[in-house]
Amino acid sequence: MAKTEQRNGLGVRDGTDKLTDNGKGSESDPEVNGSAVTAENQVDKYGFTGGAQQTSGAGAEEVPIDVLRQREAKWLEMLNHWDKWMAKKHKKVKDRCQKGIPPSLRGRAWLYLTGGKVKREQNQGKFQELDEQPGDPKWVDIIERDLHRQFPFHEMFAARGGHGQQDLFRVLKAYTLHRPEEGYCQAQAPVAAVLLMHMPAEDAFWALVQICEKYLPGYYSTGLEAIQLDGQILHALLRRVSLPAYRHLNKHKLDPIMYMTEWFMCAFSRSLPWASVLRIWDMFLCEGVKIIFRVGLVLLKCMLGSQEKLKACQGTYETMERLRAIPPQYVQEAFLVREVIELPVNEKEIEKEHYAQLRRWKETHGDLQCKSPPRMHGAKAIIAADPPRRQDLRQKPTIIVASPLARDGVNGREGEGGGGGGRAGVPAPADPDGSADGTALLRHIAESEESLSNGEEDTYL
């Protein structure tokens, strides 16, 4: 097995890249030194002005605007009755995550999928309390040195000391105070940064907590035992998915931790085009870590899955270089998502292999030093393990706009109070179970005989 530093950072290993150097990046690399982004640079639709993540347009799917609006309406309906959808129509939620969450609702959907919304409501004031504390100087120093490395070509993080870097510092520092025994790991920074691109700092903090504790438990702990175990699981699953790739990696004694550490610990946020990152995260936060395993298996199969492809990989170095430079056609959004969905690897197979690898680990290394909580396989498992109260799921918009669809009822309800919060002209919620908590547009969708949640109309949407 490749040597990894037994410390709380992404392990330093042979052939490592920028993420693994524990605070000492190459000054010549603009992605490390945080060089300023000039005003002339064009900003893509995701906020990138350059770098590997910038989208040229060729690799991203364009959803027709009318389809996007209908998807938004469906997601608003689901979010307004989240507990019911997760209990009775989870497959529909999964299908819609696979099709891609509308950009305008992605942050809110991620917060609900991870259980971060419930966690926030159950711990009101906790983030503010952590935010006001100074933090452990050891972790504060490392976090500050890492801030400028996180997506420096994204407009949110381009400026040193800008609001994006400030919020990233707040979230990461708060986590070290929330889990002082775990502290900070460098791979948490890009994960937190992705969350901050879609939600406020407090929401990003609770989503990060859920990812670290429920989706990827033990990944960021000292010793990196959990990621090493998952590397062995990935290798074992590869035998069934692509025997040529499995034999090739065995032949050259390539330990999984040499090529999959950044993939898994950063949830592919540093390894794929941005359109693909978002689609993978939509599925990952819904279905759990099996999506991360599937992506890794698809990439290994695409790069090493035939004798023809292996001709260019005569040694360890060539193989590692091939896995670092994956051709665009294999990471393009439509291709990758389709391959991931179709790959037959499920939670039971991952758990079965987990116990097998755990037995082997104990035989060779003894008991695990880090006792992590059990892994939750996606949103359904999380909500089942800790059923939320309905008030914890209720949306609390800061801006309420009356819909034109509700003209008949707006004036008649002025001053009624209740869900309208006493605001004149805002319709009060009328749902008898108290769960309706949005605008009249959502009631119109829910009550319509031709509701957009009808499965017959949902073949493409």
Automatic annotation (TrEMBL):
Key word DNA repair present:
no
- Which UniProt keywords are given for this protein, alphabetically ordered? GTPase activation
What is the name of the protein in this document?
Answer: TBC1 domain family member 10A-like
Mind telling me which SMART domains this protein's record contains? TBC (SM00164)
Annotated segments matching region Disordered: 1-61, 404-461
Specify residue ranges for compositional bias: Low complexity. Answer: 51-60
Q: Where is the composition biased (Basic and acidic residues)?
A: 14-27
Cellular component annotations (GO), alphabetically ordered: plasma membrane
Residue intervals of the Rab-GAP TBC domain: 100-288
The lineage's top-level taxon is Eukaryota
GO function term, MF aspect, one: GTPase activator activity
Q: Pfam families, from UniProt?
A: RabGAP-TBC
